[in-house]
Design goal:
Elements: E1 42-45, E2 48-51, E3 54-56, E4 59-63, H1 73-82, E5 87-91, H2 94-97, H3 112-121, E6 125-129, H4 161-178, E7 189-193, H5 205-219, E8 224-230, H6 233-239, E9 247-252, H7 258-267, E10 277-282, H8 298-309, E11 314-321, E12 332-334, E13 341-343, H9 363-374, E14 398-402, E15 412-415, E16 430-437, E17 444-447, E18 451-452, E19 454-460, E20 469-475, E21 482-484, E22 493-500, E23 516-517, E24 522-523, E25 526-527, E26 531-536, E27 550-552, H10 557-562, E28 575-578, E29 599-603, E30 606-611
Parallel strand pairs: 4-5, 4-11, 5-6, 6-7, 7-8, 8-9, 9-10, 10-11
Antiparallel strand pairs: 1-2, 2-3, 12-13, 14-28, 15-26, 16-22, 16-26, 17-21, 17-24, 18-23, 19-20, 19-22, 24-25, 27-28, 27-29, 29-30
Helix pairs in contact: 4-5, 8-9
Signal peptide: 1-31
Organism: Kalanchoe fedtschenkoi (Lavender scallops)
EC number: 3.2.1.23
């Protein structure tokens, strides 16, 4: 299934370029018949990959363009090449490229054409994974959240026309955009994936055939279309199409024996059309908030890589370089039920050979590099130096605005009952629900049976103009009633519930993950009606970025108290803070939020992502 922060002015480094040679296959000594006509062709025959008439082994790695700033794409790709890789596999997240229906974005971090051009420049082949579902610890598995507002609700990942129609419109834009980059057209793309581990979710063959037809219609008959599923019969039966319609690839956990899985793979491909390929070989693992950062032994991982390569098999490392879940795009998992909610970190370091900051001095990087060098016939690029990092000192943050001072400028939707975030046209960020109730001398009990994902509760007397008073937090994963104290008001008590979207589920049966208050709200077992919903989307990656250095600290009671030494007032109210620093040299840095609460960080108006120090545990 697999499935920190830097300045906007990164340092570029010059590295030597060596055009990759063909992989070495013991026992294969002659080129394929018709080599003189094979230029510009990447194909499968004799259970091998062939590139321009020569046998070829894919030694690739996942590196996702949307998790790396464009200024660093070439740097990270060169580091992947110096690891010994000859191919890059990347997802294409639909929600990044079509944030609103019919509005498409291919600029900045979404400039996939530039990314593919750099891969071509560096001699790296590309395995493209356009979904439409990608998983990848990415919000809603890459689906745009506006799909959740469609009525009647579409069945995601199915042949339901209400789902396939927007998929078709998306691919009608995406696939012609990438078609010039196919290998036969002089570009780097040699394979295009259909869906992603579909066997772990469904068995709708009509859906898979529809995606194949769409891809062939735009990309032609020569491109290799492939599926990826776990290495079991059940998953392959459900997730791929037998025969020669697609090439069925597999993935499996690091400790599994690849031999039987590669034999099983052959059963699902046409005779002679099953080169052994693991498309997701896990070099590390994902981490959720509250967990210790995942770590795997570098020498062990390298030994398991060799166990694959020693079988003349091809391999794709997941991940070669993880990067960062910028903005609001980190996803989430669930456990036994949808309340067992496990949101992902902003960091997507993944304990990959190339670290989140691009460092390559780890045992894992060097060990994997040594193994790969044994199985290729050309010398690997020299290992590059780590990029220099600099501390820019303490940034003094000043409180600029209290949250509730801003609500009069927000867009408002009124309704009898609370509405989900998607239904009011807001896909990310925070939504403020406002209503009122009669306070009792003994206090009141507030229940919100279904809240996605984290709700902070405030009360006040509206006629006095007093500040909102924080009373507690209700969380999806530990939902408990909240006791509201008696509040002596002349009229109804003002109730404000600030709900944070912490990232949509990206894997499993609970993927249809709407955000906000998704149930009735109860005061002492009575349903509370008449609501105003104040929209607060904040910026995401597709928004325009300006030129201020800002940290917007959302919504933590602890924050103001901890930062009282900086001149702020102690209060439970969320607030916005701003600070400035000067980067006199173009070197990377980190932002430390030790002692802060929970919030969001923006640098030059670029949404770096969420921070939550109390829920982050270094290894």
């Amino acid at each position: 299934m697999a499935k920190r922060h830097r300045s906007r002015a990164p340092n570029f480094i010059a590295l030597p370029l060596l055009i990759a040679g063909f992989a070495f296959f013991p026992g294969v000594s002659q080129a394929r018949h018709g080599k003189e006509n094979a230029a510009g062709r990447f194909e499968i025959a004799d259970d091998m990959f062939w590139k321009d008439g020569e046998p070829y082994r894919i030694i690739g790695g996942d590196l996702h363009y949307f998790r790396v700033l464009p200024e660093y794409w070439e740097d990270r790709l060169l580091r992947a090449k110096a690891l010994g890789l000859n191919a890059i596999q990347t997802y294409v997240p639909w929600n990044l490229h079509e944030p609103k229906p019919g509005e498409f974005n291919f600029e900045g971090v979404a400039n996939i054409k530039l990314f593919l051009s750099i891969c071509q420049k560096l001699g790296l082949l590309v395995l493209l994974r356009p979904g439409p579902y990608i998983c990848g610890e990415w919000d809603l598995g890459g689906f745009p959240a506006w799909l959740l507002a469609v009525e009647p609700a579409p069945r995601l990942r199915s042949s339901d026309p209400s789902f396939l129609n927007p998929v078709t419109k998306w691919w009608d834009i995406l696939l012609p955009t990438v078609a010039p980059f196919l290998y036969e057209n002089g570009g780097p793309i040699v394979m295009v994936q259909i869906e992603n581990e579909f066997g772990s979710y469904g068995d709708d063959q009509a859906y898979l055939h529809k995606l194949v037809a769409l891809a062939r219609g735009h990309l032609g008959k020569n491109i290799i279309l492939y599926t990826t599923d776990g290495g079991s019969r059940e998953l392959l039966v459900r997730g791929t199409i037998r025969g020669n319609v697609v090439f069925s690839a597999v993935d499996f956990s690091t400790g599994e024996d690849p031999g039987p899985i590669f034999e099983l793979q052959k059963e699902f491909n046409a005779p002679g059309k099953s080169p052994a390929l693991c498309t997701e070989f896990y070099t590390g693992w994902l981490t959720h908030w509250g967990e210790t950062m995942a770590k795997t032994d570098g020498d062990y991982v390298a030994a398991r890589v060799e166990n694959v390569l020693s079988r003349n098999a091809s391999i794709v490392l997941y991940m070669a370089h993880g990067g960062t879940n910028f903005g609001f795009y980190s996803g989430a998992n669930t456990g036994a039920n949808e309340s067992d909610f496990q949101p992902d970190l902003t960091s997507y370091d993944y304990d990959a050979p190339i670290s989140e900051s691009g460092d390559v001095d780890s045992v894992k990087y060097q060990a994997i590099r040594r193994v790969i060098q044994k199985y290729i016939a050309v010398s690997i690029l020299p290992t590059p130096s780590n990029n220099k990092k600099v501390g820019y000192g303490l940034v003094k943050m000043q409180k600029t605005t209290a949250f509730f001072d801003m609500i009069h400028g927000m867009d408002v939707v009124e309704s009898l009952d609370p509405m989900p975030m998607e239904s009011v046209g807001q896909m990310f960020g925070f939504l403020l629900y406002a209503s009122g109730y009669v306070s009792k001398k003994k206090g009141n009990l507030l229940r919100v049976p279904k809240v996605h994902d984290r709700a902070q509760v405030f009360i006040s007397c509206p006629e006095t103009g007093e500040k909102q008073s924080y009373t507690g937090t209700i969380e999806r994963w530990s939902n408990q009633p909240l006791r509201l104290p008696y509040w002596d008001c002349d009229s109804n008590v003002s109730l404000s519930i600030l709900v944070e979207n912490m990232g949509r589920v990206n894997y499993g049966s609970y993927i249809f993950d709407k955000k906000g208050i998704l149930s009735s709200v109860f005061i002492d077992d009575n349903v509370l009606n008449t609501w105003k919903m104040h929209l607060m989307p904040l910026d995401n990656l597709h928004e325009v970025h300006k030129t201020e250095t800002t940290v917007k600290d959302s919504f933590s009671r602890k924050l103001d108290a901890v930062n009282n030494e900086n001149g702020t007032t102690t209060s439970g109210e969320p607030a916005f803070y701003i600070g400035y620093f000067t980067a006199r040299k173009k070197h990377d840095t980190y932002i430390s939020f030790r002692g802060w609460g929970k919030g969001l960080a923006f640098v030059n108006e670029y949404n770096i992502g969420r921070y939550w120090p109390v829920k982050y545990h270094a290894p």
